[in-house]
Amino acid sequence: MSKIVVVTSGKGGVGKTTTSANIATGIALLGKKTIAIDFDVGLRNLDLIMGVERRVIYDLVNVIKGEAKLQQAIIRDKHLENLYMLPASQTRDKDALDPEGVGRVLDELKGLGFEYIICDSPAGIEKGAQMAMYFADEAIVVTNPEVSSVRDSDRVLGLLAAKTVRAEKGAEPIKTHLLLTRYSPAQVARGEMLSVGDVLEILGIPFLGVIPESKAVLQASNKGQPVILDEMTEVAQAYQDVVYRFIGEERPHRFIEQEKRGFLKRIFG
Amino acid sequence: MGFLDYFKRSKSASVAKDRLQIIVARERTATRDNAIDYLPQLQQELLQVIAKYELIDLGQVSVNVDKSGGCEVLELNVVLAPAKAKAKAADADAPKPLATAAS
Q1: Residue A35 bridge partners (DSSP)
Q2: Inter-chain contact B16–A198, Cβ cutoff 8 Å?
Q3: B59-82 pLDDT tens trace
Q4: Distance between CA atoms of A72 and B101, rounded to whole angstroms?
């Protein structure tokens, strides 16, 4: 059974690509054959975040247009045997994607035995974003605890409920998950940032977890190595928890509350 | 930073939440449910039906979709013309507030 998962948000810069790379990597680490597809035609970046940019030859649009075979375009990760990615085109425009073509590619990937197909959506709610979500079974809605991001996420939830295969066929709706990224428990404690509870109350969808704001994310993208591999960091642990919850295992929530520091620790750091 | 500044700042998250709740609710009715698409027509048709039986003032009618908890409520408010106006209407066939009164 293959699952098509869209990582989406509406707003740009909230962490869709980071999340796609890390969730794909995390699921692959559990031994499940996983592919991450970059749907951001014209502005591909998932290849950089996953550190495979120099191995891109063909892309999603080449496959859709019949200019390359799917197997030629898929890039296999050098370190993780179950991890693959399919890059976006850097040169074409968003109209290069159409439902028939995308559907064909996804069906073929299912045929190749991929258990998880992670679709990294472009920002916005235009065609590219709609193509990324159209065939999805589940959606990870990446949101920052910030007004414009929450508002855009709500719009995206509306699209997920209306403009997808599942909605059009009247099938069981797409399963949505809220992932709150760039979360700062200290700011929440000071009343300067929307809390998990606030965002959940507004969006009203199941909660996958928080990813704390962290410098490690930038360092990981500098290196082209998903941060989940940097196991000592809080972000990596947060993404690991999220991956387990996503595949259906329970994990207690962490990194939501400000860490209570003892008296000595507060003085001596 | 004075005491008041601190107080003001500490509340910005709740200001954010209040603003979001309002804008999100409004945009949901506008986009998610396609409610806005058919509301004017629904209002028109409902009025035609009601006007067949009752005198109504078009200015005193409102149709709204409200979301409370998990369910949506279609709220229709129609103020019926006062008894006096009705009597008058019976005499002088179709006074002003009638619009599409029964013929």
Answers
A1: A84, A117
A2: yes
A3: 777 777 776 666 777 777 877 777
A4: 72
- The Cα–Cα gap between B30 and B24 comes to 10
Contact check, Cβ <8 Å, B31/A194: no
- Which tens digit of pLDDT belongs to each residue from B36-49? 567 777 777 888 88
Any alpha helices (H) in chain A, and if so which ranges?
A: 16-29, 46-49, 60-64, 70-73, 99-111, 127-134, 147-160, 165-169, 185-189, 196-203, 215-223, 234-246, 263-268
Give yes or no for a contact between A67 and A58, defined as CB atoms under 8 angstroms apart.
Answer: yes
Is the CB of residue A121 less than 8 Å from the CB of residue A136? no
SS3 of residue B75 by DSSP: strand
Which two structure tokens, joined as six digits, stand for B23?
Answer: 């804008």
State whether residue B86 sits within 8 Å of chain A by CB: no
Averaged pLDDT for residues A235-262: 92
Q: Tell me the three state secondary structure of residue B64.
A: strand
Strand partners, B71: B68
List the 14-33 stretch of B: residues with Cβ below 8 A of A.
Answer: 14, 16-17, 19-21, 23-24, 27-28, 31-32
**What pLDDT, on a 0 to 100 scale, did the predictor assign at position B81?**
72
pTM for this predicted structure: 0.79
Q: Report chain A residues whose CB lies below 8 A from the CB of B10.
A: 190-192
The number of CA neighbours under 13 Å toward the Cβ of A89 is: 17
Q: Do A191 and B17 touch (CB under 8 A)?
A: no
CB contact under 8 A, B27 and A151: yes
Cα of A70 to nearest chain B Cα, Å: 36
Whether the pLDDT of residue B20 is over 70: the answer is: yes
Contact list in B for residue A198 (CB cut-off 8 A) is 13, 16-17
Residue B84 has pLDDT above 80, yes or no: no
CB–CB contact A202 B17 (8 Å) = yes
